[in-house]
Design a protein that fits this description.
homodimer, alpha/beta, 434 Repressor (Amino-terminal Domain), Rossmann fold, 3 domains, six-stranded parallel sheet, 14 helices, about 40% helix, DNA-binding
Chain lengths: ~350, ~350
DNA sequence: AACGTTGTATACAACGTTGTAAAGGGATCG
DNA sequence: CGATCCCTTTACAACGTTGTATACAACGTT
C-alpha cells in the first residue's frame, strides 16, 4: 500500500504543500508542525514517488554503470567501488552488461531506459566516436578507459602503455628472453589492447629484445578459457616462451592452468604476469604477478566527474550535458606493480 | 536533447494522441499515418519518458536484484543469468549490493527507490520473517535460497541438505576418514550454513563416521581469505583432516592456497570440495570438485515467479503483491556434482 | 499604526504520457 | 437514407510531486 503526500497531509492535519516542505527541508516550518508531519510519515511509511518527483524535477538519483561482463572479476570489483563512491552522493547505481557487443553498446550510449538515469559511467569495448555522436542524448557520461578518442565524454584512464611496459620490463629484468603476450586481437579494435601491446613492444625494445609475431597470441575474449587456449597455442608454436604477459588476470589464470597441464613449472619454466589484480590471482597457485590499477580511485574519479557534470546536487537545473558543455577531460588514475610468485617464485624461507 | 510526443506530433503533422497510438500499437491507425509518425520518431530519436509513463501506468519495466556481494563470483554469475532471463520480459535489472548487512537488507525489503522498480529478486543473508512483515510495501518479491522461513515471499531454492550430503558422501566414498567442514558460523544465523552443515553431518552418519567439532571450522565471511584462515586453523588443530568440504567455492580456493603453502598435496594429502561451481574452480590447480547448482534455472525460475506475480505483462493493473496474494511458493532448482582433480586427482593418461 | 518576519494555506500549472469519452468526416453497405 | 466501421482529433483528467505566486494571520518591534 503506497501512500502519497496527500495521505500524510490528511493524517497530520496540514496541507500537501506543508508536507512537501517538511520532506524537502524547507526552513520555514514550525518545529511542532514538522514533528507532526514526520510522525505521520513514519506511521504510513511514506516514500516519495520517484517517478513523479523525477518528472517534476528532472532527476531520479539513479546513475547507470555499463560494463562488458559482470562476471569478469575486474568489473565486479570495479562495480563494488562505483557503488560505494556513488553512495556518498546518495545515488543508486543501476548496473548493466553490454557483453561488449557493438549494438548493445550503441544502445547504452544513446540512452538506456531514458529518463530513468541521471548519468552514465560506461566501460565500452567496441564503440567509436561516431557511435557516440549519433543519436546521443544529453545524459552526462563518463567513460572508463581510452576506448573512444576525441569523443565528447569525460574519461578516466590508466596509462596502459606505461603499465604494460613496466610489467614487461619486470619480466625482461628477470632475464627472460622470449617474452610472449596474450590478449592481442586480430582486428585491433580495442584501444586497451593496442596500448598494452604497444607498452609490451616498447619494453622489448628497451631491453634490446626483438618483437616476434610468433610470441604474440590473440584472444577472442578475455576469459580463462581464452587464456588457456592461447597459452596452449603458444606452447605448440615454433618458439617456446620463457615468460608471458597476459593482458588481464583471467587470461593469465587460464594460461597458468594450461602450463600446469603441460607439466611446466611456474615461474621456473615460464614466468607469468597479468593485469588487473583480481582477488583470484592473490590466492592462485602460484600467486599472480600483475598490474594493480587503483580501482577505488578509478571509481571515485568517475563518480566525481559525473557529479561535476550533474552540478553536484540532487536538485534540478538542466545538466550541461555532452553537447555544448565544458570540454571533455581525461584524468589518469594510479596503478602499481604487484610482484608475486608467478614471476619471482616462492620466498625460500616459507618452505 | 530529449524529445517529447508533442515534438514528434508536430514533425509528423498529427496529434499527440495519434503518436501515442502509434507508439502503443493501437490498431486503428492508417498505414500511411503510421509510417509518417515512425519516420518522425526515428529522425528525432524519440524515447518515451519512462518516469511519465510509469506515473501514468504504474509500471517502469525495471526489476531489482539484490545480492550480498557482486564480487563473490557466484553472485556475479547469477546476476548474468538473471539479466538474461529478465531480457525475455524486456525488463531492465537494477543490481544492488547489501553486503549481507541486516540494516541494508531491511532497507531493500521495505522498498528501495520506491516506485522505480516493479519487482525484486533478493538473496538475503541475515533477514528474518519479522523483517519482511514490518513496513514491507506491495512490490512483488522472490527470494533466492531458504533464508526466510514462513515469510510471505516466493522462494527459489536448491536442496542444500541433499547437495552437501552428496558431496560429503563422495569424499567418504573415496576412503576419507577425517572430513573437515569450513564455513559454519558461530551464531548459525544463515540458513544455508545450517543446511549445508546438516547435510555434511548426515553424510558422516551415513558413512559411520563420527561428527567431530574439531573438524568444523567457522568462517566470518565466505571469501578466499576466510577459507585460507580456516584451513590454516584446521591444520594447526589436534586432528589432521584428510578431506575438507567448504561451504562455497571461494572458501575452497582459499583453503587450497593454504594447503599449498603448508606443502600438502591435493588431493593426495587432503581432498577438497566446494559448493557453487564458479569459473575460477574450473581453471584452478587442481580443478575443484564442487556442487554445481543450475544457476540459469534458478534465474529463470525466479524471473518466472516474479512475472507471474506481476501478471506477466508490462501494462497496468494492481500487482497482487505480497499481502493478500496467492500463498508463497517454494520451487527447487537442480544441482549436480562436478567431480574434478581436487578430490579424485589428475587422470593418469593426461600426463 | 505600520512594518517586517515567520508560518501556513490556497491556487495554479508544470512535468510527459495515456485512458476515456465524444465528435466529426469519409467510405461502404443494406 | 441510416447504420456501421475506420480513422483522427479534441477535450479532459489522471498519475504524485513541486515551484511560483499570493493571501492571510500572528507576533514582535519601532
Amino acid at each position: 500500500m503506497r501512500h502519497r503526500l496527500k495521505d500524510v497531509a490528511q493524517r497530520a492535519g496540514v496541507s500537501v504543500k506543508t508536507v512537501s516542505n517538511v520532506v524537502n527541508g524547507y526552513q520555514h516550518v514550525r518545529a511542532s508542525t514538522r514533528a507532526r508531519v514526520e510522525e505521520a510519515i513514519a506511521e504510513l511509511n511514506y516514500r516519495p514517488n520517484l517517478s513523479a518527483r523525477s518528472l517534476r524535477r528532472g532527476r531520479t538519483g539513479v546513475i547507470a554503470l555499463a560494463v562488458p561482463e559482470l562476471d569478469l572479476p575486474y568489473f565486479a570489483e570495479l562495480t563494488r567501488h562505483v557503488v560505494n563512491a556513488a553512495g556518498a552522493h546518495d545515488w543508486t547505481v543501476l548496473v548493466d552488461q553490454t557483453g561488449g557487443a557493438i549494438d548493445r553498446e550503441r544502445e547504452v550510449a544513446t540512452g538506456i531506459r531514458d529518463h530513468l538515469i541521471d548519468g552514465l559511467i560506461f566501460s565500452p569495448l567496441a564503440l567509436t566516436a561516431d557511435d557516440l555522436g549519433a543519436g546521443a542524448d544529453s545524459t552526462p557520461m563518463v567513460l572508463l578507459g581510452e576506448r573512444i578518442e576525441g569523443g565528447p565524454a569525460d574519461h578516466v584512464v590508466i596509462d596502459n602503455v606505461a603499465a604494460a611496459r613496466e610489467v614487461t620490463a619486470h619480466l625482461a629484468g628477470l632475464g627472460r628472453r622470449r617474452i610472449a603476450a596474450i590478449g592481442a586481437q586480430r582486428t585491433a579494435e580495442g584501444v586497451s589492447t593496442r596500448l598494452r601491446l604497444a607498452g609490451y613492444a616498447a619494453a622489448l625494445a628497451d631491453a634490446g629484445l626483438p618483437y616476434d609475431d610468433r610470441l604474440v597470441a590473440p584472444a577472442a575474449a578475455w576469459h580463462r578459457a581464452d587464456g588457456a587456449a592461447a597459452m596452449t597455442a603458444l606452447l605448440a608454436g615454433p618458439v617456446r616462451p620463457d615468460a608471458v604477459f597476459c593482458f588481464n588476470d583471467t587470461l593469465a589464470l587460464g594460461a597458468m592452468r594450461a602450463l600446469h597441464e603441460h607439466g611446466l613449472r611456474l615461474p621456473e619454466d615460464v614466468a607469468v604476469a597479468g593485469f588487473d589484480d583480481i582477488e583470484d590471482g592473490r590466492f592462485a597457485v602460484p600467486t599472480l604477478t600483475t598490474v594493480s590499477p587503483d580501482k577505488a580511485e578509478i571509481a571515485r574519479l568517475a563518480v566525481a566527474l559525473l557529479a561535476e557534470r550533474l552540478g553536484g546536487r540532487r536538485s534540478g537545473g538542466e545538466p550541461s550535458g555532452r553537447e555544448g558543455g565544458s570540454p571533455s577531460r581525461e584524468i589518469s588514475a594510479g596503478y602499481h606493480l604487484e610482484i608475486r610468485e608467478s614471476s619471482v617464485g616462492r620466498p625460500a624461507a616459507a618452505r
